[in-house]
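When time allows, look over one protein, given below as sequence and tokens. The question is which stretches look regular and which look disordered:
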Amino acid sequence: MTQELHIVGGGMAGSEAAWQAANMGVQVVLHEMRPQVETFAHRTGNLGEMVCSNSFRSDDDEQNAVGLLHWEMRAAGGLIISTAHEHRLPAGGALAVDRDPFAESITAKVTAHPNIRISHEEITTLPGDGQWIFATGPLTSEALGAAIQAETGADRLAFFDAIAPIVYAETIDMDVAWLQSRYDKGETEEEQKAYINCPMTKDQYESFIDALLAADKTEFHEGETAKYFDGCLPIEVMAERGRETLRHGPMKPVGLTNPHSPEQKAYAVVQLRRDNALGTLYNIVGFQTKMKYGAQTTVFKTIPGLENASFARLGGIHRNTFINSPTLLDDRMRLRSRPNVRFAGQVTGVEGYVESAAMGLLAGRMAAAEILGKDMPTVPQDTAHGALIHHITGGAEAKTFQPMNVNFGLFRPLEGLKGGRRGRKDRYKAYTDRAKSCWQDWLAAQG
């Protein structure tokens, strides 16, 4: 075997694809344009850099679809998920990581792999020969995006993904705020106190909404249209949808008791999640924003406990590009018009770090099997990986295709299980049990 696998993009999907293919014995060239060519959102040239949240979300593999995806990736020797656990931070049942050491570790592992070579240049075309995986993610360069558009003959789909601000912990007033995970979630005291909570009265909440609506916002470039993914809406867009929207979303006050005033129920609560191992940085949960920097500091300092806050990073907004995968990709993630080219990660229309890495895992294995002349069995649809790939390569409605997180709504129903909220616990456990069995069989079939 002499054919190399070329992978474009060193984020979650590209790094995972390279790792999986290299471990199967394939020689991999990983093309990452950073740091030679920078993006708006990245700060370093490290592989696997996290530019938005530092959370991989729930790690519950029995009652949560993303937790199941974690489990499947661990079983498959996943680079991203194993490294995330090495750099885990307390997060009340979620898998949050210390982002800089995480990316540094991913970079070190990939660089040290004997079957992987890293090349730092921008790829701007879709090659006509060789085996390629494009995992350029939401920040696909304009030149490459134009090449994809020319090849597919269809307009690229784009939405805008906003970055939440990060606050220095020492500047948060803990005489007002308190440490607690919602419903005291977590097995240890550290997990149960993984979030800082800032309470609001009704009047404070109403004033905050007024300030959000009146704040100066970032202007879009000519010809751009804002098509937001509902799972990552800027807070001011949520506020525009109704004054109570935030109070029933990221600012919901449930599952929390203020120890400074235990008898008083907060009308709304702003949560901050630990962002590094030292506990010196906290990001404001769900507070993606496209407000201008000056407006951000003004508005966020109206939050009780953050009046004197200092920000390590303010929120931002960047273009997020994805293709219409149901019309363009086959079930092996190959471009129908150019089968030597695969796509993986967020550019395929999955949403989130975990989902992106999962699609990289599949693309890397599929490409390596093809190069090695091996017959890879179809990914079982009843697994989390299978549910996702089925959705993006044919299960979704192409006309209304939008980025999707993994969720149990993508899974095929099981007969004889009670529907509705009351039957949810048993139903989810049955989904995860079935998925684990199918996934283990699929891995075993590959030898």
Observations:
- The first strand starts at residue 5 and ends at 8.
- The longest helix spans residues 424-445.
- The chain has 13 helices and 17 strands.
- Residues 162-319 form a domain with the Elongation Factor Tu (Ef-tu); domain 3 fold (CATH 2.40.30.260).
